[in-house]
Amino acid sequence: MTELSQIEERARTLRAELENHNYQYYVMDAPSIPDAEYDRLMRALIALEKEYPSLITADSPSQKVGGAPLSKFEQITHEVPMLSLDNGFNEDDLIAFEKRLQERLLNVNDLRFSCEPKLDGLAVSIMYEDGVLTQAATRGDGQVGENITQNVKTIANVPIKLRGENIPKRLEVRGEVFMPKQGFEQLNQTQKERGDKLFANPRNAAAGSLRQLDSRITAKRPLLFYAYSMGVIEGETLNALDFHTQRLTALGEWGVPLCKESAVAIGAKQCIEYFNSIGEQRNALSYDIDGVVFKVDDISMQKRLGFVSKAPRWAMAQKFPAQEEITVLQDVEFQVGRTGAITPVARLEPVFVGGVTVSNATLHNQDEILRLGVKINDTVVIRRAGDVIPQIVSVVMDKRTSSAVDIVFPTHCPVCESHVERSESEAVARCTGGLVCPAQRKEAIKHFASRKAFDIDGLGDKIVEQLVEAKLIENPADLFRLNLPMLTSLERMGDKSAVNLLNALETAKNTTLPKFLYSLGIREVGESTARNLAMHFLSLESIMQAEIESLLEVPDVGDIVAQHLFHFMREPSNIDIITSLQDLGVNWPTIEQASAEQQPLLAKTVVLTGTLSQMGRSEAKAKLQDMGAKVSGSVSAKTDLLIAGEKAGSKLSKAQSLNIDIWNEEQMLAFFAEYDDK
Ligand code: IVH
């Protein structure tokens, strides 16, 4: 072999290896090598191609890292127009859609639909010729789009070359480019750290990333693609398949990524069930969707139904209630939290968004107000995603009038008038009043009584507020000094509720060390840090006496947490409250006692993966932690147990290769049941 042919051979091998790893990772959801190894192979290929540019091929995986910037995007005329969809908003629309179809198709029964999440990104067309990606375009106006080939090649899960048998001569794959939620959060975090502009939502971030003239920037953005239809098809293989879903499956076999949540339904009733079930999963999905697309699955029926203007008769998008709406910011109030943090809260003209009426939204902090450039009386875009607190996304500047007024951040606490301080390292401004501030007092006691802390039945936020306002309590220990006359002196508190509350307080005295620590409301000490502290030090006394260095030995405890803890435990008023609580009868078993009885998974590292069907993931995680486990996100040699739900992917294979114990959901539930019996 000549030297050049050896080098060609080496390039070919590297390409084949990289293609195979891409396929394993993105299509099979089972990485075959560590990321670092993949990067090493990619660097080797790029170096080889740089040295021998004649070796570069259009289908080389090295194209994934982007190429020289363009001066503008060329226009591309779509061979088959890219259509849009008719929208429906409720069940009646879907039933009417089925009825229209049945009338046109002369009363066929049991219509079969492809049900697909309506991905909230951008429609893109990708042309493969002899299995190689040759061109990609935006939808544009449906007739003419922009040539974004270089950018689309950099999208991690888009194959530059199709794999497998009987690949059509020319195949135009259509689908959505989107940014997964987690990638979006990370991107915004990086943008923030660099002082760059933040994106309002994953869709905008995807659009901004895809329309980059410099594809090396696109390559760094966490974009993904799912195919949902086809344009040009030349060749027998696909045309021989009678159903849209069969054709999608064929694409999947050639390595084209598909949305795993898609399904088939028979008739409008099953479509409605699918819509409701996707609606329930919506917040938990890793990507944003704005509805469900229903398509008649039978291609011959699609052909008979045809099109009206720009939309097919055989498909319909049923939208979820809008998550973004426009309203007016009427005022801004400043709330004081448990740790004195002052949060600006937007009072809005009530507006119906995401299925509920919203009249408040958080503005987070002073920086956020500056970033948005928002003023009182401005028209604003608000967004409500699931059960997340509504947020102001942007200001509609065109609608600003002369009545717009600057938002002035208070220099004194709106509740106790203490000075407001903002440290250099934090975005948050805080009231310096501490427990002198009634707002902080109330919040501290509400936290103490909350479910994950002392879990005091019948002690809701309203009663805490009444008790503090009536000066019957000032701190958590005072709760255990309440008596019947004190409680019945409150408005709307009857004898029976008062007795119940006193009983609940008595019961709550028996707690655990992690809960006790958590309930103190020490800054940055959440449930899991509290648990780690208890496990590490085993007693409250040792935690109270611990120096910074020994606090830092606890898992998840960093400088900031250690500082907060250390100072909290040296503050005489805090020590007083802790001592009083114990004097008043608050107690917990020693960690050794607790572990033997209740913590069968003590010090075990457990990883959860895949979809659980009978128990929410956060519930499972909390239960495992209650049993003493440390729940981690990734599998390593230190993992003791993997719990694999349905569709478990790379973590399962990794655990198998490391010989780690694996349970399915049933085994986990059986274990929980056994533990609950004790
Ligand atoms: S099918 C003729 N399927 O929705 C078929 N579109 O409002 C046209 N979209 O421009 C599109 N998910 O960007 C289809 N599973 C899906 C989709 C989907 C998202 C978007 C697409 C299109 C828009 C139409």
Explained architecture:
It contains 27 helices and 24 strands. The chain has 678 residues and is an alpha+beta fold. A five-stranded mixed beta sheet has the order 2-13-10-3-9. Strands 16-15-14-17-18 form a five-stranded antiparallel beta sheet. A four-stranded antiparallel beta sheet has the order 5-4-7-8. Helix 13 (438-449) crosses helix 14. The model has no long low-confidence stretch (mean pLDDT 91). 2-(butylsulfanyl)adenosine (IVH) binds at residues 83-85, 116, 118-119, 123, 139, 176, 228-229, 293, 312, 315, 317.
Could you provide a short overview of the structure?
The chain is of the alpha+beta class. 39% of the residues lie in helices and 20% in strands.
